[in-house]
Amino acid sequence: MTSPGEDLLPSTRRALLHRVALAQRDGRAPSLVAAVQRQGRLVWSGARTCVEGHAPDTDTQYRIGSITKTFTAVLVLRLRDEGLIDLDDPLEKHLPGTSAGSVTVFQLLGHSAGLGAEAPAPWWERTPGTLRPELADVLGERPRTHPAGHRHHYSNPGYTLLGSLVEAVRGVPWEEALRREILEPLGMHRTASEPVAPHAVGWAVHPWADVMLSEPAEDLGLMAPAGQLWSTASDLLRFAAFLAEGDDRVLAASSVREMRAPAAPTETGSSGYGLGLQIVTGAGTVLFGHTGSLPGFVAGLWINVEEDIAAVVLANVTSGLPAATVAAELVGIVAEAEPRIPEPWRPLPEVDEELLALTGIWHWGTHTFTLRLLADRGLELKPWGGKGRGASFAAGPDGTWMGQDDYYAGETLRVVRRDDGSVDHLDLGSFVFTREPYEAGAAVPGGVDAEGWRGFGG
Fold first, then answer.
1. C-alpha angle 367/371/374, rounded to 5°?
2. Model pTM score
3. What is the pLDDT of residues 251-297, one digit of tens each?
4. Residue pair 325/280 in contact by the 8 Å Cβ criterion
C-alpha cells in the first residue's frame, strides 16, 4: 500500500505495462496508449507501437467514439440545472418537428426512448455526415423499435437528437457549446471535433493475416454528438476527475452523481446505464465511464470512485483489442495492489443534543433498526444485523430529512412529537418507527392490542 501522493510501486507499474503490452500484441493494434490516475494525479502511463522508436504518449490524439456521448449528456444536464429544460420534458417541447417528439429527455439520456440503435444505411460511422443533412435522415422511416420507457436499447440517433436539443436551446452549434462549457473550463485543450497533430491514424487489421488497411476518418455531421470527438489520455483523465468529483464551473457534484445512477435496467445483470455513463459492477466494485469505437479506433475510460482511480486505454485499430476491458483491468491492478488508504476517523465538529437524542434503536413493527447521526445533520437508518431496507438521509431546511439512496431514495423522514414536545415516533413515507416494538401509547397504525404482549399457555 502507499500513502496519498506517492508514486506507484515498481511491481504495480510493471504489472500495468505487462497488461498493455499483452493487449497491443494480442489485439494486433498498430499503437496503444494507456494511463492511470489516482486521487486526481497521473501516476502511470505506458504505450506500445509497431513503429520502432515512435511510441505515442498521453498527448497523442485518438478518436474516442461513443465516449463523446458522456460530453453531450453533461451539456444536457447543464441545461436542466439552469432551469432551461426538465428531464421529463418531451423532446418536441424544445426540438419540434421530429418523428420522435414524444420521447423524454431522460429517456434519450438513458437509452430507454425505444429508438433504433443506428441511423439508416449507409453505415453512418464510415460515411460523411453530408449524406444525413436532416434529423429525418438520421431517424429514418421507422425511428422506434420499442415502446418508450420499457427497456434499455442503446441508440446512436438518440444522442444525435440530444446534440440538436443543445443547439436549439443554446442557440449555438454543439461543438461551440462543448468547447465553451466543458473543454475550456476543464483545461481539455487537446480534445476537438477534428484531429490536431500529433494524432494517430485509424487502421483495420485483417482477421487472418498481419496486414493493415487504412480507415476513413469522416466528419459525422449531425451524428457528431454520438461519436465525433478526438482526445488524448491526459485530457480524458481530466474529464474522469470531473466525473468523479464534479466541478461547479461545469456541473455540480450532485448532478454528476445523478448521471451515475442507473436510468433503466439492462439485459445484462452486471452492467447498467445512467445518464450518459455506463455502469459495470462485479467482485464488490462499481466502475463508471464509457466505451468507444469508430472504424480505426477503440477506447475505454473507467473510474472507480471508491478507490479514486481512473484508467484510459486508446488504440488505433478497428477491432480485436478490448480497450474497455483492459482499462477496467488497469483500475483493478492498482486497486488490488495498492488499495486506497482511508482518511482517519474524526469526530463531528459539533454536536446537536436534540439530534443525538434521536440516535439508537428504533422499531418498525417488530423489525429493529439503528439510527446514526452523520455530518451536516444527516442521518443513517439501517436494519439491525445489516439485512433489509436502509438509507442515508440529508437534512432539509424544514426539519425533515430526504432519503438519498436505495428503497428510501426521495422519501421524507420526519420526527413526530407529542403535545408536550417529546418524540412519539419517526415517520418515513408512512412507516412508523417507535422506540419499542409496537409501543403502547404511540401512534402505531391500526393501534396496539390493549392486552399487550403475551405468551401462549398450554
1. 155
2. 0.90
3. 999 999 999 999 977 766 668 999 999 999 988 899 999 999 999 99
4. no
What Cα–Cα distance (Å) separates residue 392 from each residue in 7, 8, 146, 367, 372?
A: 35, 34, 36, 18, 9
Q: Which three cell numbers stand for residue 418?
A: 407529542
The residue type of 458 is: G
- Report pLDDT digits (tens) over 263-273: 977 766 668 99
Q: Which residues neighbour 300 within 8 Å (Cβ) at sequence distance 6 or greater?
A: 289, 291, 292, 311, 312, 313, 322, 323, 324, 325, 326, 327, 328
C-alpha cell at 365: 413493527
Whether 402 contacts 391, CB under 8 Å: no
Tell me the C-alpha to C-alpha distance, in Å, between residue 83 and each of 74, 86, 172, 247, 326.
Answer: 14, 7, 18, 18, 39
Tell me whether the omega of the peptide bond preceding residue 198 falls within 30 degrees of 0, making it cis: yes
Q: Which residues pair with 367 in a beta bridge?
A: 364
The type of residue at 227 is: G
